[in-house]
Design a protein that fits this description.
Function: Plays a role in primary ciliogenesis by modulating actin polymerization.
Number of helices: 6
Protein name: Ciliogenesis-associated TTC17-interacting protein
Largest sheet: 14 strands, antiparallel
Structural class: alpha+beta
Shape: globular
GO biological process, one term: actin filament polymerization
Strand content: 35-45%
Keywords: Cell membrane, Cilium biogenesis/degradation, Cytoplasm, Cytoskeleton, Membrane, Nucleus
Distance between the termini: 44 Å
Order of helices and strands: HHEEEEEEEEHEEEEEEHHH
Subcellular location: Cell membrane; Cytoplasm, Cytoskeleton; Nucleus
Oligomer: single chain
Strand order of the largest sheet: 8-7-6-5-4-3-2-1-14-13-12-11-10-9
Number of strands: 14
Length: about 375
């Protein structure tokens, strides 16, 4: 199952923070720093043209099902985009939180993918976490990829667990050399914008393939056609995306409703198709109502209700503060949901160790070690005296 081609080309990279120098293809003069591939001028112009109002129209969730060739439902696929904040060096930056997840089975093999990405208003990726797994009988494959900006570089950390073998690798690229780079999380947002615009001319961006090789990612219009959703026949607009990996190019074809809701998603060569089964409520620009005018009324303090007590005051203050924090950090619910899904999949005996090992790759202060090996090591989270 793949939110956008995962367990084949992934992508998880970065973009907008206290920015280094602006992205300028002519700024790199050292040949060793110049990438072998580059985004097209049309693609860079597209990124500059996207405004806040257009982005706000893409803030919604998609929920689809995955069907086999025979029409049997074998899994689910969800994508959501919502406003969020990203913290860097003690500063909070407004951004978008993109979360995509697919799970199910293909030919009887359980598999799934999860993408969590913070995308700036300039469509640059601030940080992305990609998790993929395939559970073959007697053999499993688990991949975790984190892409994050560190100073003037974009760093990619990968942890691949295949059976009992663990492989770690880290690669980095100068941020100035990745003008027009689109991560998998950013791609999910950009596709909605391109569908709403009914793109005409092809675009060439940069992306990373499954092996973290930098390559060209192309977008091309497939035109309009009709699709049956539930009992309705609707018009949909198609976009084809290809990551031109030096290993094996990978292509997806996606069809969207007029407002950017995903209707169909298929990876060329895959045995499954992701389809929308229920017609969503289409999102359109809101008409601004005239600003209401309120009459000023004298305040009669004698009729004003008294607060019940200082305790209730404090209690309401805490509740409001906690709710505000959760609204500003919706990624917390996303992380906990992914953890619960993986916890129920593995069903470990020691949940405390499992949780510590699951979240350890997200920490920059701990030394790496084999994931999910609590059955082989004494837990550092239990006091031997108890």
């Amino acid at each position: 199952m793949e939110p956008e081609g995962q367990m084949s080309p992934p992508g998880s990279e970065l973009g907008d923070a206290p920015h280094p120098a602006p992205c300028d293809p002519e700024a790199a003069t050292d040949e060793a720093q110049v990438p072998a591939v580059s985004a097209s001028s049309e693609a860079l112009e597209f990124l500059r043209s996207v405004g806040q109002e257009e982005l706000n129209l893409c803030l919604f969730a998609d929920s689809l099902v995955t069907e086999s060739v025979s029409g049997v439902e074998v899994g689910t696929y969800t994508v959501s985009v919502q406003p969020a904040y990203y913290e860097l060096d003690g500063m909070e930056e407004k951004c978008f939180l993109v979360h995509a997840a697919s799970q199910g089975s293909i030919d009887g093999v359980p598999c799934g993918t999860s993408i969590i990405g913070h995308i700036s208003y300039k469509l640059e990726t601030l940080e992305q976490h990609l998790h993929e797994y395939v559970k073959l009988r007697g053999h499993s494959l688990d991949k975790k990829t984190q892409t994050v900006r560190q100073g003037d570089e974009i760093v990619i950390n990968r942890i691949i667990t295949e059976g009992e073998k663990l492989h770690r690798e880290t690669t980095s690229h100068p941020a100035s050399s990745l003008c027009g780079f689109i991560s998998e999380a950013a791609n999910l947002l950009i596709m909605r914008i391109l569908a709403r615009r009914k793109m005409k001319e092809p675009l060439e961006f940069l992306a990373f393939d499954e092996e973290a090789n930098l390559c060209v990612s192309t977008y091309a219009a497939l035109g309009s056609q009709t699709q049956m959703i539930g009992k309705q026949t609707v018009d949909v607009f198609g976009i084809e995306r290809t990551i031109h990996s030096p290993e094996v190019p990978t292509t997806w074809q996606c069809f969207y409703l007029s407002d950017g809701h995903l209707a169909t998603h298929v990876q060329i060569g895959s045995s499954v198709t992701i389809k929308l089964t229920e017609m969503p409520i289409l999102s359109e620009p809101d008409e601004k109502d005239p600003k209401p005018v309120f009459e000023k009324k004298p305040l009669d303090w004698q009729e004003d209700l008294q607060l019940h007590s200082e305790f209730l005051d404090r209690k309401e203050e805490f509740i409001s503060d906690h709710e505000t924090y959760l609204r500003r950090h919706p990624e917390m619910k996303v992380l906990l949901a992914d953890f619960m899904q993986f916890l129920l999949l593995r069903k470990p005996d020691d949940i405390v160790d499992f949780a510590a090992e699951y979240f350890q790759p997200f920490s920059s202060t701990h030394e790496p070690r084999d994931p999910f090996v609590s059955s082989h090591h004494t837990s550092p989270f239990h006091n031997s005296s108890h």
